[in-house]
Amino acid sequence: MNAPLSTIEQLQVALPDLDWVKETPRIQRLSQDFSWFSPVLKRQLAGKFADAVVRPRTEDEVKRLVALCAKLRVPLTIRGAGTGNYGQSVPLQGGVVLDMSAFNQFLWCKGGAARAQAGMRLWDLEKQVRAGNGMELRCMPSTYRSATLGGLFGGGFGGIGSINYGPLASRGNILGIKAITIEEEPQVVELRGAEALLMHHLWGTNGLVLEIELALAPAQDWNEYLVVFNGFDAALEFGNAIASTTGIAKREVGFLSSAVTPYLKPLAEYLPANRHAFILAIAPVSELAMMELAGVHGGQVTYRKEAEEIARTHRTLLEYTWNHTTLVAFKSDRNITYLQSAFVAGEHLEQVKRMEKLLGDEVLMHAEFIRNIEGKVTCTALQIVKFTTEERLQEIMQVYRDNGVRINDPHVFIVEDGKAGGDLPQAYTDVKRRFDPLNLLNPGKTRAWQ
Amino acid sequence: MNAPLSTIEQLQVALPDLDWVKETPRIQRLSQDFSWFSPVLKRQLAGKFADAVVRPRTEDEVKRLVALCAKLRVPLTIRGAGTGNYGQSVPLQGGVVLDMSAFNQFLWCKGGAARAQAGMRLWDLEKQVRAGNGMELRCMPSTYRSATLGGLFGGGFGGIGSINYGPLASRGNILGIKAITIEEEPQVVELRGAEALLMHHLWGTNGLVLEIELALAPAQDWNEYLVVFNGFDAALEFGNAIASTTGIAKREVGFLSSAVTPYLKPLAEYLPANRHAFILAIAPVSELAMMELAGVHGGQVTYRKEAEEIARTHRTLLEYTWNHTTLVAFKSDRNITYLQSAFVAGEHLEQVKRMEKLLGDEVLMHAEFIRNIEGKVTCTALQIVKFTTEERLQEIMQVYRDNGVRINDPHVFIVEDGKAGGDLPQAYTDVKRRFDPLNLLNPGKTRAWQ
């Protein structure tokens, strides 16, 4: 007499036509994401693996899988490309990881908007709308080559382009989503506008998103530059001027202190020692104005590539910005980690300078200029931290908080403890109840739903 | 024996191939602009006419004319379409009005920039770059149908589009100009970037501009809306949210208090009594987000036209914004005039509310949301004033100043007394010395150069 089938085996027997990943090493790899940036999460999430991984290719496959998982009460963890940093793709209680990367069809682009399935890679989407419609993404992470649309929506902030359009959560950037309820008879539901944002950045814990509709920006060519400065303050003032000047068309304004630039070894020839640097993506038409401002603030342009060459060679400075700065730094030093912090618009320059003075030897400044959700220029930072102990890491974050800087703690795996910053508003819980009444979406990630 | 020829006659005899306007009524008409918006200027500038008007068609014609005027010491006043409001096209000491409207060739558009001769109409330029290159003007006055590029540069501020790109003077909007010196041997000189702005908004008093090169914006479709509100404060909050929200693509955010809307008779059916209104130009992709904000603030959309219909019918709300509001109001009431004021970014809503409380019965609020030269959202206003006396008008402006609001006095005809706000910096004077060493450009308009 055979042993009874496990629930996972029942799933696999009942849905044999789905693309199941069965090799343990691949299952383990697909149970991880970039949460190893945090030594805390690396320790806490070690050994958290799915029992199985499945790669649905159609809405019907998703629906059949979800229905059966609901019936069998199997936890489901949604995964895009695994480029997130909060363990959002790490299943805390086993079950099935739903690898959405094969659910990746482009649907349409018209009227300044585009819609695609959640597993579409951002770069594929950008290429599609650029070539087909002369549009581009309003914002995207530095991981755009591999990251998926659904992953950005589920756990992303914004990034390149947020200097114009703010974070993804700014009203008007997300037009709608299609989501499916985790029930024995799954319902497919469209949420429009602000309502769609109730599933944003909850790390896939209150809904399974199938399709996302985004507002786009008219495409522009972007030249790339490195501009270096002797003075920390002069550099910041330059960046703030670039960020604030509406007449200068830009897509990226990223600041790297002289303590960070040595980590960017592939760019070493353009980053002289002891100089602070800006990585810029600027429209050709605004090059003169940028150069004028560099002159005003004592900057020196050490690197300049035109959009055409960047497109041809695929060598872009954008892959040294945002969390790619951290990733590149890890290549030469494993004993680092990072912070995520949001400065107060209007006080942001003073705050960055103050934190540099207080912690500059240990917390190496990497700040990205953006417009915040109120449309004001500010900085968000992804500082590189010379890691010693978890206790010291907590102390550092407390110093930031004590100086009025918001920490979006990237060293936690519970939704409420991260960017959400505390208890979730009722509207999010209502969505959870509607879309995941059985609490199968990565249980344990959200305190409210234990 | 014949009487000796006047200098004007000498010019006309020496340059018979130029297009001279000789009929007195036309000369008088072409010696005026929209300074009649101000009862003060109307009185002060009455009877100020050119001795002759000439319409050059080529750079060679300009050059020969300028050379001879320099030799004969004939004053020159530059005119675009005469839609300015400061008497900038009104010759104070006679001489020749240089009507630039036939010097109107489009030169090129590429790489996000366009260049044209100064007399090109803004609407012709917009149509050209939109059809040919998928671009549009970053900002333009409501008089865009008739106003010229050179007139905008010489005496304009910005306008429609300034909610994104700030005023024309924001670094990066003007890329370069070609100007000609007023000398017996005129020199043609290119000024690039910030240097070009040294001739901006000096009403043609320190240089004769031949060509202007502008940075453009990627063209978008713009739907138009009227949204009405019961509450003054609620309306303002709505407008500020539209203006500030980076995710909402817009070109125009104009506020009309319920005291102003009755003047807009052609729109009467969409403007209920006692409601405050916003005129909006919004990209179709942002319609949902705009509607959501209208809902949040208790607004009601009474008018909605899609871009396609606007293009087909040539009926646009844009011609009820900026100084067109004033122009339309004049059609039903000649006893009005207007103000121009700039509110302090961040305090702008409170200032608008305070001024409404202090003077609302006499100064009817019409405010335009823009991003200022620092990239911050604020209001600039073109209030309609129920005119009584010049003394009262001065008192009203003083009340504004006493409340911390900047008045760009549109009731003066001297450069320093208007938006320039006092003595001109040395750099402007240096340009004057270089480009008009004989002080022939409308002498009397600038105090520094008497």
From TrEMBL, chains A, B:
Keywords: FAD, Flavoprotein. GO terms for molecular function: D-lactate dehydrogenase (cytochrome) activity; D-lactate dehydrogenase (NAD+) activity; FAD binding. Residues 46-219 form the FAD-binding PCMH-type domain. InterPro entries: FAD-bd_PCMH, FAD-bd_PCMH-like_sf, FAD-bd_PCMH_sub2, FAD-linked_Oxase-like_C, Oxid_FAD_bind_N. It comes from the Bacteria. Pfam families: FAD_binding_4. This is FAD-binding oxidoreductase.
